[in-house]
Design brief:
The complex is a heterodimer of chains A (about 450) and B (about 475). By secondary structure, chain A is of the alpha/beta class. Chain A is built from 14 helices and 24 strands. In chain A, helix 11 links the parallel strand 17 and strand 18. Classes of the chains: A alpha/beta (about 450), B mainly alpha (about 475).
């Protein structure tokens, strides 16, 4: 499989690392020789110093027999032009990192030539928002432009649901309980059934519309004080977007960044946010600005060590919830032990979602569920698919996988045994590592089959 | 600076002014007055001068920013001086200083008068006074919205810097088209007011003169007692409404006329402007009610609102002598004199937009004391304002106050008392007209000494042209050949 990646920055390098680990033929292209040299230090792939938007350069790379073309530079425009050029020249699958919302309509890219447009910052900002808002939520994903949410929450020992089976809960709460599609216990992901007993320390994944998921979380968790004050470290696009979102929800937001110029740019975009030019590890001014009274503290700066340190500082001063942006796997595992509540890693999720996209062609979008290898996959049911018109219980759906939600043009349904899929519906599938291949072949179209 | 292109453009402006004398000449003939000849003579003199300057000048396309300042400043001065000729020729205004004062007061839409018996003047002179307002206002609309942004002065440059949005920036990219659109609005509003005033019982002549003086926020009336002479609530309210419109940004009117009514509600400056009017009217109406100045509540409110709007929009019409009101009214009105109308209106003064920005800068400095590391951006109409503009506004405010202070000092050097000096300077620098003390609404500027009149004329031009435009000509670099 031949893969061309344009942009050897952080995202490009991560992607190249992920893909070359499974022995793919990866070519990393960048216009900047210095960036390329830096990537060369710890990557084992082919490097080309060239302009990734130039048709001549792409021809030289042999774009015609390229299976995956990924444009992941910092510039939306460069990525779009590169991907569209590659499309014209005959590359098979085109992926572009597109951050500006202007290029999306209803969550989908406006360019038909680009197979997958990804906006990791945007998704991460949304995930952080969900985590902050939902007491007890530790992970959050959005599908189908936000119509379906998947939220992971930890069951606490004094929680109302601890020690009960899902069937008891269903009887008790009725339609106020969202589908529990997956459960992580002792580092193992499992797909629960009616007999499964919820234990303290379990992470359970609710799936459904936003309201349904919210209502379910309400039962899982003891009441918490509402979110009123949030401090965000990092006046980068993600920090700014998050600040804007939170501010629009009526929360008092303080945005901190050590660089005065970035602060100025941010303050020109955020009317009601207090932007502070403070080094996020400089304790005294942060305490003066009330870091300890924060309901939420989010660190999304470029430097992940600084993010972790500032989260620790916030924790120590008394901030209630801390969310940290880290991309290095070893750090992610470290965070819970440090007392940091949640981690988001957009760059990694970019790399993994592109890699996943390569593996399973028909998928609309995909997310890793926790860090256990399980995945949430979104598929579109095409006309003529064997599953159309057959009730789910008669379908012979793969073991170790479950359909968590059915997205129809009318709304979002919680699937039951009698649910019938129609062409154009989309389904959200939770698959354990052992079920991934079976799910992929179940949904693959005849012409996609090797 | 290239002098010759400037001379040609000035010649052109003089020519247009000279031709505009024909209208009052016609009015004099129709009304049977015998001073039409003086207007025709002035036309001749004006055209001769214009021709000479046109011939002496060179291609006007060489006008750049520096030349622009000279054109605007000298244009206003020369047109004002030429406009003094007819009244002086006919002997209606015996002294040329007085005639020039009246004319410059007209063209700068100030409305400060040296005439004691207005009703005794010919129809030609009365129409000419109103027309000079109206032409001056026409110049201001284009100046404020199309030319000054190019020169980098005036409140409207705020809009130039920003991305085109729903409100305010130049309406079309070309000055010519912008000017025509805004003149269309201006003419339309003048016509509407004329009709409204005629329906309220004014003669056609009075209605036209008052409409022209209102829309230009000038303030010359055809009556000795100004608008108060009609003693008609309907006339008062009509003029209040049109004064408010004239003191608002004309871009808003254009957008509203093209169907976007909501621009008024969305515009920060317009809302603040209305807020100031309401607050000041309340502040004045309450003491008036307490001392029973007027017999009814309605009349009290009408008098208070009229005076507030008249002063704040820098029109200067009067319905009663506010110097007889409680002292709080004087102080409130004096403060309003400095505020003036909105940016992009025919009103003078510091402008509501600048005041709003100054308040925001002040608030920002206060918050900075609490959050010393905070990075702030000033917002206006939902957009971030560039920090240079805050500096520009602060600079303007400083210069305005300095010129104001120097004016007061200069006038008190003579025989004027402090109140008169403050009132006269504020009224002329802010292009209002009636001041305080000896130059209050019931008196006029006739008794001032000649040098005081010339000084006030300079203030009128400086205030009208947003100070910067005039003061920049005192910077030697502006005169150097580029």
């Amino acid at each position: 499989m031949k893969i061309v990646i344009i942009g050897a920055g952080a995202v490009g390098s991560d992607l190249a690392r992920t893909l070359s680990a499974v022995h793919q033929d990866v070519i990393l292209v960048d216009r900047d020789a210095d960036v390329l040299a830096k990537a060369q230090e710890d990557l084992d792939c082919h490097f080309v110093h060239d302009n990734g938007t130039s048709p001549a350069a792409l021809e030289r790379l042999g774009i015609r027999d390229c299976d995956l073309f990924a444009a992941v530079t910092n510039s939306d425009e460069v990525n779009i032009v590169a991907a569209l050029t590659a499309n014209e020249l005959g590359a098979r699958t085109k992926v572009a990192r597109v951050r500006s919302e202007d290029y999306y309509v209803a969550g989908r890219s406006i360019f038909p030539g680009i197979d997958l447009a990804i906006n990791p910052d945007h998704e991460a900002a949304h995930a952080i928002r969900e985590i902050l808002f939902r007491a007890g939520a530790v992970e959050a994903y959005r599908f189908a432009g936000g119509r379906v949410r998947v939220v992971g929450a930890t069951v606490e020992a004094d929680s109302h649901v601890a020690g009960k089976t899902l069937r008891e809960l269903r009887r008790e709460l009725g339609s106020n309980l969202a589908l529990v599609a997956a459960l992580v216990r002792d580092g193992q992901t499992m797909i629960p059934n009616g007999q499964t007993v919820l234990m303290p320390e379990d992470t359970i994944y609710f799936t459904g519309t936003r309201r349904l998921v919210d209502r379910s979380l309400y039962h899982v968790h003891a009441q918490q004080e509402p979110l009123q004050r949030v401090m965000i470290v990092g006046a980068n696009p993600m920090g700014v977007e998050l600040a804007r979102d939170l501010c629009a929800a009526g929360i008092k937001v303080k945005l901190v960044d050590p660089d005065p110029e970035r602060c100025r740019l941010a303050s020109e975009q955020l009317r009601h946010v207090l932007v502070l030019a403070i080094d996020p590890v400089d304790t005294v001014p942060l305490v003066d600005e009330g870091i300890g009274e924060m309901d939420g503290f989010v660190a999304v700066g470029v430097d992940e060590e600084v993010n972790m340190l500032s989260c620790l500082l916030a924790r120590r001063q008394g901030a209630r919830r801390t969310v940290c942006l880290v991309n290095r796997v070893d750090y992610i595992d470290l965070l819970p032990r440090l007392g940091i509540d949640s981690a988001v890693s957009p760059r990694r999720s970019t790399a993994t979602s592109i890699a996943r996209f390569v593996k399973r062609g028909a998928v609309v979008s995909a997310e890793a569920l926790g860090r256990t290898g399980a995945e949430i996959l979104q598929y579109r049911i095409e006309p003529g698919h064997p599953a159309v018109g057959v009730p789910l219980q008669e379908l012979g759906f793969p073991r170790d996988a479950v359909i968590g939600a059915v997205i129809t043009p009318q709304g979002v349904d919680t699937p039951g045994g009698h649910t019938v899929l129609r062409p154009g519906d989309q389904v959200l599938v939770f698959a354990l590592p052992s079920g991934l291949d079976a799910v992929a072949s179940f949904f693959s179209q005849p012409d996609d089959r090797p | 600076m290239k002098i010759r292109p400037v001379i040609r453009v000035l010649g052109f402006l003089l020519g247009v002014t000279a031709l505009s004398f024909l209208l009052p000449a016609l009015a004099s003939v129709v009304a049977g007055d015998h001073d039409a000849w003086s207007f025709l003579t002035a036309t001749g003199v004006g055209l001769a001068l214009a021709g000479l300057m046109w011939w002496a000048g060179s291609d006007a396309r060489e006008i750049r920013v520096r030349e622009g300042f000279a054109v605007v400043t000298f244009g206003w001065i020369l047109v004002g001086l030429l406009g003094g000729l007819p009244g002086w020729f006919s002997g209606q205004i015996p002294s040329y200083t007085d005639a020039a004062f009246e004319s410059i007061s007209g063209f700068t839409t100030t409305g400060a008068s040296i005439l004691t018996d207005i009703e005794g003047r010919s129809h030609g002179v009365l129409l000419w006074r109103a027309l000079s307002h109206w032409l001056g206002g026409m110049g201001i609309v284009v100046l404020a919205l199309a030319i000054m942004p190019l020169l980098g002065v005036g409140g409207m440059q705020l809009f130039r810097a920003e991305v085109p949005g729903p409100v305010a920036e130049r309406l079309t990219p070309r000055i010519n088209q912008t000017a025509k659109l805004l003149w269309g609005v201006y003419v339309l509003l003048t016509a509407l007011e004329t009709i409204a005033l005629m329906l309220a019982g004014l003669s056609f002549f009075d209605a036209v003169c008052h409409a022209m003086a209102t829309m230009a926020t000038g303030g010359f009336s055809t009556r000795n007692a100004s608008v108060g002479a009609y003693a008609s609530p309907a006339v008062d309210w009509i003029i209040i409404v049109f004064m408010v419109l004239a003191g608002a940004n004309f871009t808003l009117h254009y957008l509203a006329l093209s169907g976007k009514w909501r621009v008024y509600a969305r515009d920060d400056e317009f809302r603040f402007y209305l807020g100031l009017i309401v607050a000041a009217s309340t502040l004045i109406a309450i003491p008036l009610l307490v001392v029973h100045q007027f017999p009814t509540i309605h009349e009290t409110i009408r008098q208070a609102v009229f005076q507030v709007v008249s002063i704040m929009t820098t029109t200067g019409f009067g319905t009663s002598d506010y110097l007889l009101w409680p002292a709080v009214a004087h102080t409130v009105l004096l403060m309003l004199m400095a505020v003036g109308g909105c940016a992009g209106s025919t009103g003078g003064g510091i402008k509501v937009m600048r005041l709003l920005l100054l308040l925001k800068v002040g608030k920002q400095e206060l918050v900075k004391l609490v959050h010393p590391r905070a990075v702030f951006t000033i917002w206006f109409n939902g957009r971030a304002v560039r920090p240079e503009l805050a500096t520009n506004v602060l600079g303007f405010f400083l210069l305005f106050m300095m010129v104001y202070g120097l004016g007061v000092v200069a006038l008190t050097l003579g025989v004027r008392d402090l109140v008169t000096a403050v009132g006269a300077t504020a009224a002329c620098l802010g292009n209002i007209g009636p001041g305080l003390g000896e130059v209050g609404p019931a008196s006029n500027y006739a008794h001032l000494m000649d040098w005081e009149k010339w000084l006030l004329m300079f203030f009128m031009v400086a205030g009208r042209l947003e100070i910067f435009t005039v003061l920049v000509l005192f910077v030697p670099a502006a005169w150097r050949r580029s």
